């Protein structure tokens, strides 16, 4: 597990605060130290936000269904169907077609609104195509 922020920013900010406090009435030392503490604290916040944003970035449409979640995805209605279709797209990108474009929201909605029989035929066709390409 990664730390939400790097340890050096808070430590450096703490040292700068300590220097500013110990400088007391010596403003030539206290003001730059306090300024450095504020800047280092801001850098710590920026670092933390950058780390969290990096974890959240990436295509939303490439979230695979975990193996234990496939049964739940079949029972999950349209959101479950979306997960299944997107997982098949991800598999296809990994196995055969890395250039496969992402589906539009309209395409995905049209597939997910199919009747259960049509959706099962769609899945069978996609799985057969994936098996043939692998």
Quote the average pLDDT.
77
| Largest sheet report | none
- The rounded Rg comes to 26 Å
- The coarse silhouette is rod-shaped
Q: What is the number of helical segments per DSSP (H or I, 4+ residues)?
A: 6
Judged by helices, strands and strand pairing, the structural class is mainly alpha
Q: How are helices and strands ordered from N to C?
A: HHHHHH
Cα distance spanning the termini: 34 Å
Query: Which blocks of ≥5 consecutive residues have pLDDT under 50?
Result: 54-60
Beta-strand portion reads: under 5%
Number of strands: 0
Level of helix content?
A: over 70%
Summarize the structure.
The protein is mainly alpha-helical and 134 residues long.
Features:
single chain; 134 residues; mainly alpha
What does this structure look like?
The protein is an all-alpha fold and 134 residues long. Helix content is 72%, strand content 0%. Helix 1 packs antiparallel against helix 2. It has helices at residues 8-23, 27-56, 70-75, 77-95, 105-112, 116-133. The longest helix is centred in the first third of the chain and has 30 residues, at 27-56. The protein is built from 6 helices and no strands.
Any chance you could write out the topology, listing elements then pairs?
Elements: H1 8-23, H2 27-56, H3 70-75, H4 77-95, H5 105-112, H6 116-133
Helix pairs in contact: 1-2, 4-5, 4-6
């Amino acid at each position: 597990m990664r730390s939400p922020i790097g340890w050096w920013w808070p430590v450096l900010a703490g040292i700068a605060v300590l220097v500013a406090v110990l400088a007391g009435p010596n403003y030539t030392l206290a003001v730059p130290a306090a300024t450095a503490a504020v800047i280092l604290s801001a850098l710590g916040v920026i670092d933390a936000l950058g780390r969290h944003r990096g974890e959240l970035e990436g295509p939303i449409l490439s979230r695979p269904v975990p193996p234990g979640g496939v049964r739940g995805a079949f029972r999950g209605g349209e959101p479950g169907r979306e997960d299944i279709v997107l997982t098949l797209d991800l598999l296809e990108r990994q196995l055969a077609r890395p250039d496969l474009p992402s589906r539009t929201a309209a395409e995905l909605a049209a597939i997910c609104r199919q009747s259960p029989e049509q959706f099962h035929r769609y899945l069978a066709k996609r799985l057969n195509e994936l098996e043939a390409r692998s």
